[in-house]
């Protein structure tokens, strides 16, 4: 997962503006929203076991759900 450097708002953008996603800081902000009553629950979507374990190592509030999309084969 990636994010963009602050201030980049034009599409398409150059690859030099890409940054790795800071999961820890994003989750801390989500926990703060939860504590302030701005959300009933916080969760994830399509996190691998590795990324989920990295998050759980520092999370004060565990995710309520990890929604995963699966494709059914015929």
Automatic annotation (TrEMBL):
Q: Which InterPro entries match?
A: AKR, Aldo/ket_reductase_CS, NAD(P)_OxRdtase_dom_sf, NADP_OxRdtase_dom
Q: Which PROSITE patterns match?
A: ALDOKETO_REDUCTASE_2 (PS00062)
Which positions fall inside the NADP-dependent oxidoreductase domain?
23-69
Q: Which domain of life is it from?
A: Eukaryota
Q: Which residues form a coiled coil?
A: none
Residues passing through the membrane, by range: none
Q: Which PANTHER family match?
A: ALDO/KETO REDUCTASE
Official protein name in the record: NADP-dependent oxidoreductase domain-containing protein
Source organism per UniProt: Ilex paraguariensis (yerba mate)
């Amino acid at each position: 997962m990636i994010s963009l450097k602050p201030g980049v708002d034009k599409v398409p953008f150059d690859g030099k503006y890409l940054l790795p996603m800071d999961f820890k800081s994003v989750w801390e902000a989500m926990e703060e929203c939860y504590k302030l009553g701005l959300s009933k629950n916080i969760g994830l979507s399509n996190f691998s076991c590795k990324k989920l374990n990295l998050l759980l190592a520092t999370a004060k509030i565990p995710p309520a759900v990890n929604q995963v999309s699966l494709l059914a084969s015929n």
